[in-house]
């Protein structure tokens, strides 16, 4: 912050008040930065569990678990994936009427005996009818980086959802 040199006698009251207001506003903004809780800026560092995702979107984790407790395992996994995806998406919304908007999703592969399930790649689509990974159009993401993270970090949830 640069302090201006001034002559007290020559500075008019109006100018002094204007400068003081400006400095007070700047101080408020600086206090917000200083007092803000430390949290990782990268959403992938902040969402390492379903509970983290619930916190990000403002959903009560205990109530969420209670709501899904009577569902089958695949439906529970799907609901958990939806919460995580919502947290990772932030303000982004998939617009399936917009053919220019890419929608990314993790792609998985299974061997012929179904004994191996693994993350294979990331793909994208512009339209809902073209999402063919089995993950569903509601589970798409705005970037390949987020889809890669989902496919690797939450592979067990995808497996529970799909099988």
Sheet having the most strands: 2 strands, antiparallel
Radius of gyration based on Cα positions: 24 Å
Which strand order do you get reading across the main beta sheet?
1-2
Number of helices: 7
Q: Which whole number gives the mean pLDDT?
A: 83
Return the domain count.
1
Could you walk me through the main structural features you see in this protein, from its secondary elements to its overall organization?
A hairpin with a 6-residue loop joins β1 (103-110) and β2. By secondary structure, the chain is mostly helical. The chain has one domain. It is 48% helix and 10% strand. It has a two-stranded antiparallel sheet with strand order 1-2. The protein starts with 12 loop residues before the first helix and ends with a helix.
Topology:
Blueprint: H1 13-35, H2 43-46, H3 50-57, H4 61-68, H5 73-89, E1 103-110, E2 117-125, H6 144-153, H7 155-162
Q: Short summary of the structure?
A:
With 163 residues, this protein is mainly alpha-helical. 48% of the residues lie in helices and 10% in strands.
Q: Can you give keywords for this protein?
A:
mainly alpha, 2 strands, elongated, single chain, two-stranded antiparallel ribbon, 163 residues
């Amino acid at each position: 912050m640069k302090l201006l040199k001034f002559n007290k006698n020559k500075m008019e009251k109006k100018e002094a008040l204007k400068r003081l207001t400006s400095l007070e506003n700047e101080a408020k903004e600086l206090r917000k930065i200083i007092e803000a809780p430390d949290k990782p800026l990268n959403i992938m560092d902040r969402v390492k569990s379903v509970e983290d995702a619930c916190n990000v979107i403002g959903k009560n984790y205990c109530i969420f678990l209670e709501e899904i407790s009577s569902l089958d395992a695949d439906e529970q996994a799907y609901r958990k994936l939806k919460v995580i995806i919502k947290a990772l998406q932030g303000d982004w919304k998939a617009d399936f009427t917009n053919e220019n908007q890419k929608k990314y999703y993790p792609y998985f592969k299974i061997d012929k005996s179904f004994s191996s399930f693994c993350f294979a790649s990331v793909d994208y689509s512009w339209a809902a009818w073209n999402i063919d990974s089995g993950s569903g159009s509601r589970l798409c993401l705005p970037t390949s980086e987020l889809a890669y993270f989902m496919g690797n970090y939450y592979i067990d949830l995808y497996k529970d959802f799909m099988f």
